[in-house]
Amino acid sequence: MDMKNIKIMVIDDESIVGKRLKPALEKTGAQVETFEDPESALAHFYENPTDIVVTDIRMDKIDGIEILDRVLAKSGQTKVIIITGYATVEIAREALSKGAFDFIAKPFKPSDLRVIIERAAQDLTP
Amino acid sequence: MELLNLFKRSVSGKSGINELYLDHLRYIKLLENTRIIMNLFGDGQEKACGEYILDVHYVTAMVEETIRVLGTLVFDACVMRNHGGDALFHQWDDQKKRAGKILLSVQNGSWLQGSSGNEDPEYRLLKDVLNWFDPEKGDKKSSVMGFVREIFNHIMTRTCTVPFPFTDMPALAIPCQGIVHRIHFLPVGDETPLSGKSSVEASDCRPLRVMFRDSPQNAITSDSGLAHVRWAAVMNGPFMSLGFREGNRILCQVDICLSGERDGDYVFVFMHDRMIPEPLIPLEFSTSKINDGILAWCYDRPAAVMDDTLALLGSRLFSTPLGLEQILSDIRR
Fold this sequence. Notes:
The complex is a heterodimer of chains A (126) and B (333).
Chain A: E1 7-11, H1 15-26, E2 31-35, H2 38-47, E3 52-56, H3 64-74, E4 79-84, H4 89-97, E5 102-105, H5 110-123
Helix pairs in contact in A: 1-5, 2-3
Chain B: H1 3-8, H2 15-47, H3 56-80, H4 86-107, H5 121-133, H6 144-155, E1 171-176, E2 179-185, H7 199-202, H8 206-211, E3 227-236, E4 239-246, E5 249-257, E6 266-272, E7 286-289, E8 293-299, H9 303-317, H10 324-332
Parallel strand pairs in B: 2-3
Antiparallel strand pairs in B: 1-2, 3-4, 4-5, 5-6, 6-8, 7-8
């Protein structure tokens, strides 16, 4: 699918992630929305589902696994990419077994995430 | 090879040999932990360039891991040299206090204050941690890397009470400008360290083969009339340790791991000031001065570069007088 038609949602309660990822991912031509509060993000997703969701796995209110479950329950077409931290690679593997498209471990370069996102975009049905 | 497996390998029943073997294993572990510290510092420096998406957990994990590994280094150093370790423990306490302040600032949220301009607080915190590591950014001894240097100052002055080396062990002899380097190999496990003239080339020990690859002469020779410099070596899977002492004092120690895995391989050298080290150390090495000599290390290089560097070091080490005639004369006195 053409990147210009792709909508991406980034969910991470660390403000630095959304702040830095938004301009970096917009370079692909995609439309990017960022959320620090996972509940607000899910509420927004129910109203306006996106093609790709990039979510941190460790958050206070709702963790990334629950985000994954709820997103896929609402929209099975959406590709969910999990951001993991230092000690959560095992949980990321669990996420893959539950249907996540891929995961990336922090710290990472935005260009590394862009590669995964472009792969996810190719996997989307037009 | 896992260190635990190396521990399980039997050595000769001689208690002195056991002592040398355990010292060899402890030193390997110490070098591996030192490498963890260097990798943490190097990784942090790379991330601090600003191109990465990181969060505060990356920084706090780095601080916690640093303190854990420093504690292991201090403990091992105090086992290897069992006196004079109080100062190290005091310094480790200071390091823990420094780390504790950083972690507390994250817990109470004060790390978020004082950000200026476009700098994210995560990056500012990371830079604070890197400044704590870097001896060039403050008090040299209170930095993490300065403290690691202090740990090596402590262990490189350890003394060995074992009669050293054991002259009935198999030896490699390398004539060199009026003296003969005799390298005695400690028996480890079922291996016969050297059993014939072609043993170096045929040896299973890759560090040994590589180190003497370019040496002008290497042969098993009987004692000649020449003065001997006696080295003790331990070959242990991918590891080799080679040491030369004047009495109880370490004058030169070379520790090598060549497994073919870039992440694990290293060559680490200590040379006492008396060994005239500068011309010996190939340019690929990083060096650091400590009280009585220099430390030099080479790692994170492609296998071919590691091989060439080690061969060059071996060739220089065993074809250079090194001021050994004077040292031998002092030993005889």
